[in-house]
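Project standup — Tuesday

K.O.: blocked on the structure for the chain from last sprint. Re-posting the sequence here as requested.
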Amino acid sequence: MNFERRPDPDALLSQVEAEERQRAQGKLKIFLGYAAGVGKTYSMLEAAHSRKAEGVDVAIGIVETHGRAETEALLLGLERIPLRQIEYRGVNLMEMDLDAVLARKPQLALVDEHAHTNAPGSRHAKRWQDIEELLNAGIDVYTTLNIQHLESFRDIIGQITGVIQRETVPDRVLDEAAEIEVVDLPPEELLLRLREGKVYIPEQAARAMENFFESGNLIALREITLRRAADRVDEQMRSYLKTYQTPELWPVPERIMACISGAPGSERLVRTARRLAEETKADWFALYVETPGGDKLTRQNRERIWEELRLAESLGAKEVTTLAADSPVEAVLDYAREHQVTRIVAGRPLRPRWREWLHGSFIDQLLRRGQKIDVLVVSTEEEEMKKTRKTLQPSGPGWRGYLIASFLVALTTGLSMLFSHLLDPTNLVMLYLLAVVIAALRLGFGPAVFTAVLSVVAFDFFFVTPYFSFAVEDTQYLVTFGGLMIVGMLISTLVSRARSRSEALKTREGQTNTLYALSRELAAALDLNGISKTVIHHVRGSIKGEAALLLPEGETVRPGTTSGNFELSEKEISVALWTYRNGKAAGLGTETLSSSSFLFLPLATGGKTLGVLGVKPQNGAAALSPETRRLLDAYANQAALAIERVNLARKAEQTQILQATERLERALLNSISHDLRTPLSSIMGTLSSLREDSTFLKAENQVELLDLALEEANWMNRFVSNLLNMTRLEAGALRIKKEPQEVQDLIGSVLTSLESRLKKRDLKIRIPSSLPLVNADPVLIGQVIMNLLDNSLKYSPPDTPLEIEAAAAGSWVEIRISDHGPGIPEEHRHQVFEKFFRLPGTEGVRGTGLGLAISKGIVEAHQGKIWVENLPDGGAKFVLALPI
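H.V.: unblocked you, prediction finished:
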């Protein structure tokens, strides 16, 4: 056996899982070109006609012919699903009707222009999201795409052509496609088609040839397209070799990490990292490090950071992380070592050189400390650098803080003058240090540094000779000045960092406490209503807005609980319904139905969506930072687990009920097939014998047969009475008519009913005449005594005696029925009163196991007690205790 070519089990398992997912979804085929006019739509329509000829159900979702006659001719013979008309700013826009395509559900749908941006008011912002929904519904899709619309190539193609594409699709769309067909045309032929007006109308063609459609641009775009297609083929070959060859042949894969900063040009970082990861077939990560001064960044800068984190997620980063640390370099390197990153992609330094000299350069520190890790620096345009220097400037404390710092130094100077005749000038420095500490604690880093500088100036001017001058006679004071300056700035830095860290820890502690409180309250919630109220209470306290929990109701979802008196409109409910059906977030802050004022998150667990959480922050999408989104996702996960727990408990309860019902049905079936059939056969045989020829039988034989029939009928009567009483007991409908009763009368009436069965038994009865009365229903208690006697008769030898005795025991009257049979095993003493329970080895004795269970229910309904004991010499004693 050749072990060197043994398939990799893990790779085979991954391949099988991927194939199973593909079978459940529709298949995507992309007709890829390098520019408009190469014939993508034409090739797609030709392929569609071929598939239709094979018997495939083909329908056109949307096709853009741009007035090309040869393309329009191919539309003939293909079904076209009507488009949807959307009015936007007085203009009627035609878009694909996604719901109509889903309702029609063809085997193959044609959807042109994959990167198209949908009109406002559409369900999804982009057409590629519409296509994803079609694929999830099991519909195959043919679509067209130009290479410049891939997100990772946006910057590099923008540099080549000078045109920045606004309509882009994530690279994973191309990676996950089942098939890619490159539609190629030499640039010379494309330019000829452009001049002949086969691509654009003459005016548009002239402008295009001056800008985008230059020969050099087209050659470069064509090369990128072919390389990207070759990379796809190479990836398929790598996957095949990895599956069917030994893993040791493959080196350790590279890992790439993009350092996000929030600068205007840092989107290029993310795209570059994605492109490198695609070229090297490596995993890639995105990391943002929040430093103590991060809370002072401008709102524009923070929003850009959130957008870059979302961009990294959409481009397929394996992990998108935000860390809080004092030193961004240490945080980046620690994360890189932990995740075995081999390349770090960082941006070009944007701060002025003097600030880099003062604080150190991030890139230089990475290069010095990051051993064995390559650092790739991505360049930034000069215009972007100018924008960055404006937007990256942290928002300082304002003039108010510096004014207070000046007042603090003036106050310290005044106090120092009061004590100047008591203290040496060097000791007065401590008062200024105290002012620096107060400024650092209360005013922040900038005012604290300003306080340190101003303190040095004030100390020199007022307390160092010559006074009221900045000249210094004693050079030793220069050391004092330097010490005061350095210590003051160090104290400011350390206090500012400690303060920022404390605020960050306080925020995280608050989130942790909230999640802990939520999980604790959800664990105590017993039903969906309690879960809904708990989740809404915590969500509203975290986001300062409105919240709603929607649960499935038939084919739609309806609000179970809301945080106020507001009502969700039908539009919002339709967005929530889309989230519920697709298991993805939609609405505010997302790319799906973003016009909604609510963000809807799926309550999903185990691949199943159990409901939808709707959130409407007071400040709109600006309040949905990555931290807030993660917190809301945690709320949604906790709520989903709680709902699943309640649903499972409900299913378990229903299962128990079904099992009990099945046991009852089985017992009844057994009774009908055996226990009822035997007495019925006896009764029918007796009656038929008497009817056919009563003179043939002697009188004493007739009486004997009639007695037998009567006994069997009485048994059936008791059996049916037991069933009815058990049904009434479980339904709570058993009516008890209590009256003062003599115990002798209760027992006597039962003995009279069982007289025929007791003739051959030695019966010992001991009942004192002075027994007090008991308050009981004579019929029901009589049935209990009868069931106990019947049980003793069935399970004891016929030649052994039965004993019935009654006695007063405190506030109770006890009726004891004893036999001399085998007794009851100790482990089954408490089970004999359960429904349908029968002792092992007694299958041949007639009965259903209901008599003792009914007796226990009737006695407890009388506020009495019943139990069983084993006699020392063998046998069982049943004790019935009724209150006096």
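K.O.: great, moving the ticket to review. The chain has 29 helices and 25 strands. Confidence is low (pLDDT under 50) at residues 1-5, 246-252, 389-396.
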